[in-house]
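Page 47, continued from p. 46.
Same chain as before, 336 aa.
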Amino acid sequence: MTYKIALNFEDGVTRFVDCQAGETVADAAYRQGINIPIDCRDGACGTCKCLAEAGEFILGDYIEEALSEDEAAKGYVLTCQMRPSTDCVLRVAASSSACRTQQASFAASIREVHQLSESTYSLSIQGEQLSHLSFLPGQYVNLQVPGTDQSRAYSFSSMNRQNEVSFLIRNVPGGVMSTFLGQRAKAGDAIELTGPLGSFYLRDIKRPVLMLAGGTGLAPFMAMLEKMAEGGGSSRPIHLIYGVNHDTDLVHMEKLQSFVEQLPAFTFNACVVSAESAYPHKGYVTEHITPAQLNDGDVDIYLCGPPPMVEAVRRYLDQHGIAPVNFYYEKFAASA
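Result:
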């Protein structure tokens, strides 16, 4: 039995290692060239302490000075002793360079470009090298714009299926990627991606979840929902509020409805800012959050959208005296 262990470093780089049954995470990482900080290897010093954000494991043997009961209860582990029994996600208290690893790069080619709306492109890429690409639902990569020396960061809007991944890309007038997709891109064009990156990803679902998406900030949630559906979903309520500026900006509504059918605990609604909208739900995302969804703060909130949206949600929570158990967010800004 082999388990996938995601190591998330302080600088945002994520690397995956294969851990054999009965093998410690530290040994698996070292075997694959990643030097997690370590000293004693006996569970006595605490140097290799990491936070386990997902997965099941055996803590192993250690002394109180290295890992306290309170730390263990919060999910901290010693990688020199931890032996996983499922796939796991670990937050490493060091940079990737300090651990002698770096971002991975992958060569691929464009399979399809589709303009979903005036404001949004869907880009699908494929390639044999993507068989080695693993990422957590919600993470992003840097895509090099073909024919230029520039790259842009985009969240995956799908999981890796048969060496193919997809992205939702905002159509920015004059944007280097938008111009390429709208004017020059064709199936078969070579494209390179580097990553995965980011601390915005789906954790273990331990309480109700509220997802807030703005525009193409819907992308990471599509990957998260796909991953949930693959695993059979959760019994805890999961609600998505998807906000856009205009009716024509709404995309993937049929896919969202399909997730409702696949995930009994999942619901969603969309809202449109424009006063001229014919859509039944108007206004900003914050106007459609209900007390039940906030669950008196016993909720994990995931937010992906432009900086003003992130700040508006922060203000909303402060004004209503809500301190969620976890508030994960990803800000993005368009590059012209």
